[in-house]
Amino acid sequence: xxxxxxxxxxxxxxxxxxxxxxxxxxxxxxxxxxxxxxxxxxxxxxxxxxxxxxxxxxxxxxxxxxxxxxxxxxxxxxxxxxxxxxxxxxxxxxxxxxxxxxxxxxxxxxxxxxxxxxxxxxxxxxxxxxxxxxxxxxxxxxxxxxxxxxxxxxxxxxxxxxxxxxxxxxxxxxxxxxxxxxxxxxxxxxxxxxxxxxxxxxxxxxxxxxxxxxxxxxxxxxxxxxxxxxxxxxxxxxxxxxxxxxxxxxxxxxxxxxxxxxxxxxxxxxxxxxxx
Length: 276
Fold this sequence. Notes:
single chain, alpha+beta, Diaminopimelate Epimerase, Chain A, domain 1, 2 domains
């Protein structure tokens, strides 16, 4: 943190229980988040606690840049729920119904329709190098116990189709798969089961964070995996531990929507910032 003598404002939000700290650095013009600050803030006992941190920065070719951090201080290439929440926040501030957001994935479009914010998370990455994997593989049938599907959404995902997602030992299996050598950048891990026509039960382990109540990019990856395997169509409703998300795999990308909650706005003290 470059200026630990001044407090730092932040916002706490969540989408279906997937919770975020949002830092708006557009007026500052420069990034303030560091790995140390992200890890300190992500500590639910000594900091604020979050699944991901999202920081807004000014952009020349978009309405703003959005950077993502995990609670362990590592960066995250994509975060669908945080993107939705921040898009809603900026739409509320500006009165606009469309935005273009630059992320590590590229330019993402957000639209508000009938009170719901949808974000185009981009086309799924369906070749082994783009996910990425450590070696050439059939991404529809990865060589792991459980026959999972590999999908890239700007971050890697490993999707297991199971009979009953409720019965999965999520912490044990998620941690093991995240660090499997097949994934050079580690991976997010989803377990999905069909509970109705075009309706899935989904549980998720996020790399760098662990078990979360929801995951937007994971919902997109799960919808793609389910459609590819013939389990569902291309528009899917998913029941997660924290709520309902909906993904629609269209020609121009995978669109994501779900609930948005604006929890509180607060500031970090100079004393806390001095420790990071």
